[in-house]
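User: I'm preparing a small set of examples for a lab meeting where we compare how different chains pack in three dimensions. I only have the primary sequence for this one, and I'd like the structure in token form so I can line it up with the others. Please keep the answer compact; I'll paste it straight into my notes.
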Amino acid sequence: MRDGRLKKMRKKPKVVVVLPAYNAEKTLEKTVRDIPKNVVGEIILVDDSSVDKTVALARKLKLKVTKHKQNKGYGGNQKTCYRLALKSGADIVVMIHPDYQYDPRLIKHFVEFIRDGYFDVMLGSRIRTRREALEGGMPVYKYLGNRVLTFLENLVSGQSLSEWHTGMRAYRREVLEAIDFKGNSDDFVFDSQVLFQIVEKGFQIGEIPVPVRYFAEASSIDFWRSVKYGLGTVEVAMNYWFRQRNNG
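Assistant: Understood. Below is the structure token output for the 248-residue chain.
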């Protein structure tokens, strides 16, 4: 079955980029500009009830746009993104934040690793060295939180990922079809829930380094939201650990 999928993927997979957007007017055009159009077949933007001109700009850029009437949260936004990507016939779904924190030019490498059958999921890791992360503008408390949470998540899952909290990810279609992402949180902890589900299903996860770019216009949650996110992540990790212990 896997070999059959690989033959199909090597022809010309349909790559859909999804952009979970909230007040991304200032950075959207730069993000879209750097998406490799010779690799990507479709770009879907889901606007989570922004109060700026994100939707108008997205339509001007000729993206496929869906707007939430009410704010559903970061996880809720991604649920709509993945549902629409699967409905459009995507073979590979790439999620990237439209705040230009991540370099869209690297999408081609994410796609190649999945298309050629090396991995089912690809993550863009901002944590190659502490110096690079901090010089790229990552706040010290976020760097430390990222390191502690990633260590815990690796410990309970048996993985050795350098970062569990990246906003640049790519999935083989079968991955999103196999996990119950619709039942996950609508908040930021959605990302960790998805990765634990992927680990439970036995899919292969790969990662490549991506530059760290924090700047004024880039979206970022504040300290107290980060604390809430951290506690939620610990809960998700512990729930996974108890499930594995009970099943083992």
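A couple of notes for your slides: The CA atoms of residues 16 and 88 lie 8 Å apart. The chain is about 45% helix and 15% strand.

User: Perfect, thanks.
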